[in-house]
Design goal:
Strand order of the largest sheet: 1-2-3-6-7-8
Number of domains: 2
Strand content: over 45%
Radius of gyration: 20 Å
Distance between the termini: 73 Å
Number of strands: 11
Length: 178
């Protein structure tokens, strides 16, 4: 076999391996570096669910570098984070209709914009359209005493308060029945 044919065969095997690995990663979400996490809480008869890809800091500077300020972010990794409620609620006093939403944010150094977008099934924020926003709410951020390695959402099962933590940033927002 000639050298060019061998190189072609080798290239085909390498491409098949790469495509196979990509396919496996897309079909088995548990093997992703940023695993899919579902947080769910019931507060009375209100159910709150948040699904998100949970990346790690891995020694990187997150805010203002890996995740730039003043740009729409998927608020997690891989698919856009989703936020779902089974009945009408208020988010920090602002009304949001029952349903499933993509949860985007616009980080800044002191205050973030939470965005509840009507198109929940998106990859990242690449196809984000502002005209599909159901609600935007401003939240103040705080600095954590200890860094949080893996992006985390928590939902308080008594109050419905949602807390976000990653690297050295935290914020929260109240979810209450409307």
């Amino acid at each position: 076999m000639q050298l060019s044919n061998r190189l072609l065969l080798l290239a085909l095997f390498l491409m098949a391996g790469v495509f196979s690995a990509l396919h496996a990663q897309n079909t088995d979400k548990s093997k992703r570096p940023s695993p899919l996490v579902e947080k769910k809480a019931t507060v009375g008869d209100l159910t709150i669910a948040i699904n998100y890809g949970s990346p790690s800091v891995k020694g990187r500077k997150i805010w203002g570098e890996l995740e730039p300020y003043d740009k729409v972010w998927r608020t997690g990794a891989n698919e856009a984070t989703t936020f779902e409620v089974n009945q009408d609620v208020t988010i920090n006093g602002e009304k949001l209709t029952a349903g499933k939403y993509a949860l985007f944010t616009i980080p800044t150094e002191k205050e973030w914009t939470l965005i509840f977008n009507k198109e929940p099934n998106q990859w990242g924020a690449y196809n984000y359209k502002q005209d599909q926003d159901a609600l935007r709410v401003q939240v103040k951020t705080d600095t954590t005493k200890q860094p949080t390695e893996r992006l985390t959402f928590n939902i308080d099962e008594k109050t419905g308060k949602v807390t976000f933590l990653w690297e050295n940033v935290t914020f929260n927002f109240d979810v209450k029945k409307a």
